[in-house]
Amino acid sequence: MATTAELFEEPFVADEYIERLVWRTPGGGSRGGPEAFDPKRLLEEFVNHIQELQIMDERIQRKVEKLEQQCQKEAKEFAKKVQELQKSNQVAFQHFQELDEHISYVATKVCHLGDQLEGVNTPRQRAVEAQKLMKYFNEFLDGELKSDVFTNSEKIKEAADIIQKLHLIAQELPFDRFSEVKSKIASKYHDLECQLIQEFTSAQRRGEISRMREVAAVLLHFKGYSHCVDVYIKQCQEGAYLRNDIFEDAAILCQRVNKQVGDIFSNPETVLAKLIQNVFEIKLQTFVKDQLEECRKSDAEQYLKNLYDLYTRTTNLSSKLMEFNLGTDKQTFLSKLIKSIFISYLENYIEVETGYLKSRSAMILQRYYDSKNHQKRSIGTGGIQDLKEKIRQRTNLPLGPSIDTHGETFLSQEVVVNLLQETKQAFERCHRLSDPSDLPRNAFRIFTILVEFLCIEHIDYALETGLAGIPSSDSRNANLYFLDVVQQANTIFHLFDKQFNDHLMPLISSSPKLSECLQKKKEIIEQMETKLDNGIDRTLNCMIGQMKHILTAEQKKTDFKPEDENNVLIQYTNACVKVCAYVRKQVEKIKNSMDGKNVDTVLMELGVRFHRLIYEHLQQYSYSCGGGMLAICDVAEYRKCAKDFKIPLVLQLFDTLHALCNLLVVAPDNLKQVCSGEQLANLDKNILHSFVQLRADYRSARLARHFS
């Protein structure tokens, strides 16, 4: 059995167990081993081993049953023991509850006894204290202070406590009987108060925070406590303003005091608030007054700059002080301090602002016109001017004599930038210095000044002058400067609109003034656009007039009906060359003067008028075969010029015109085929007929028969 037990190894694997058993059995090896394989012997060994295993299994099973019985027995004993412990625990818990109730009962008795003792002791203490006070009162009554507490300077704290109580008692005594003693007590009260304040002052100069705290605690019950605070505030500021920046000095002072005031006074937030009030009402107010009063009447620009700077620095200081504990409503407290300093300056701020802005804007404009040696002419206002404007809009006629501006637009970006810069600064000051309820109204007043001087006095005047400078459509060699006015006006409009959105909108966005400003801006822009449209239209008429003059002067009848048909060497006429050169120059000028969709709109209008001019011009001549070819070459050149417009409609018109010119040279037999082509099929028959009639051979019977 021992051998059998040795064959078991952990972990148990059946195959390995059999291998080990075979290996131990004689004759159980392979045939080629040292001992021959003996199956009978191996079988006998297996049978014996199985019997041993069965015996081992029975033995182990008996041992397991014995252990299970033992375990069940111990479990019952353990359960019984747990039940006994639970009973013991319940008994202990009951004893604990009884003990707790007993302790509570004893504590109640002790508290009741303590209350009784205190009820007896408190009157006794009061009686003892009253006796002492009566003793001290008798000394004042006798006129001789003998007690050590009054004669020993080191006991000033105890003396202060006594005299403070005697002073309160004396207040209740009738004056006629105790006037003398009341006077003595008051005198001693005053002397001690002065000694304590002097002691506090000395301790502050020595930097003894603990002594300052002790004295301040004693003085807290005296009337002179506020004087102690005043002394502290005064000494804190000694040597505090050594820099050139009083605001930075004030901030540093308050930060320093904030760190130590809590270690000295029982109400540090009140003391710190009083210090800040003292700084604002004395130091800052005096400084602000000195800075503003000297330039208030003499220099409005410097006054406004100083006011804005001082108010900004004061509010920044206030923001820093918001970090400190100043009581419940420190925001209102600091706002009142700022208002007390600047109220006399802010009441009429907007009047000074608008007055300065008007005078400054007028000076900027006048300085510009003086630099141009230009005397502004009166444009006129009222009914007559309005009537002229309506007539000009409806008839597109120049009203009044044409003015030669010598190429001057009377628009200056430098002037505009200066005006916008002044207005931007005014908006910034308005935002900072205006009361929130007045801010939209004040901003609107500044905006109206900008409109008056920038839009009316400068841009509108330049437009009116530019309109007056546009020559009539039949003028020769006219210089067209109005497009330069358009270009500069567009740039100025963008700058004006940017300032409107960036600086005015934030000030009025949540007020009824927003709609009023938007309406005023819309009216101004519409008024300007009407004049720009009118000027552009008249300028286009002048361009067409110039082209017409070139064609009239340069185009000859013999160009399209030469005497020698076989000797036509030119590719296109001189008139075509000059017109195309002029048109290209004007197209480039229009592209440079405008932006966005405005370029396409104006170029399309010019292109349509250009096409109409060429169409009507070609209708004035009779064409031979060679002249017709030359006309086609001219129109091809016009069409090439029209491509520069980059407007599909204009190119389509010239394509059609080019196709119409083919009718001047096509063989009579092919006329109907050409007229039914893609480009001419949709045209009115009268238009086709009018071009065929321009042929020199139109009256021949053959041509008339083919086109009838």
Topology:
Layout: H1 2-6, H2 14-24, H3 39-142, H4 148-151, H5 156-172, H6 175-206, H7 209-219, H8 225-236, H9 246-261, H10 268-293, H11 300-321, H12 330-346, H13 349-371, H14 383-395, H15 413-433, H16 439-469, H17 482-508, H18 513-554, H19 557-560, H20 574-593, H21 597-618, H22 625-643, H23 648-661, H24 671-675, H25 685-692, H26 701-707
Helix pairs in contact: 5-6, 6-7, 6-8, 9-10, 9-11, 10-11, 10-12, 11-12, 13-15, 13-16, 15-16, 15-17, 16-17, 16-18, 17-18, 17-20, 18-20, 18-21, 20-22, 21-23, 22-23
Which tags fit this structure?
single chain; 708 residues; mainly alpha; Methane Monooxygenase Hydroxylase, Chain G, domain 1; 26 helices; 0% strand; flat
CATH architecture label of the domain at 568-706: Up-down Bundle
Low-confidence stretches: 381-386
Helices and strands, in order, run as: HHHHHHHHHHHHHHHHHHHHHHHHHH
The oligomeric state of the chains shown is single chain
Continuous helix count: 26
Class derived from helix and strand content:
mainly alpha
Radius of gyration: 57 Å
Strand content: under 5%
CATH topology grouping of the domain at 568-706: Methane Monooxygenase Hydroxylase, Chain G, domain 1
Averaged pLDDT: 82
GO molecular function: small GTPase binding
Organism: Mustela putorius furo (European domestic ferret)
Coiled coil: 50-88
Protein name: Exocyst complex component 5
Overview of the molecule:
Residues 158-707 form the Exocyst complex component Sec10-like alpha-helical bundle domain. One of its GO terms (molecular function) is small GTPase binding. Residues 39-147 form the Exocyst complex component Sec10 N-terminal domain. One of its GO terms (cellular component) is exocyst. One of its GO terms (biological process) is protein localization to plasma membrane. The protein has 708 residues and is mostly helical. Among the domains are: 14-29 and 37-124; 568-706, Methane Monooxygenase Hydroxylase, Chain G, domain 1 (Up-down Bundle), CATH 1.20.58. 75% of the residues lie in helices and 0% in strands. Helix 5 (156-172) packs antiparallel against helix 6. The chain starts with a helix and ends with a helix.
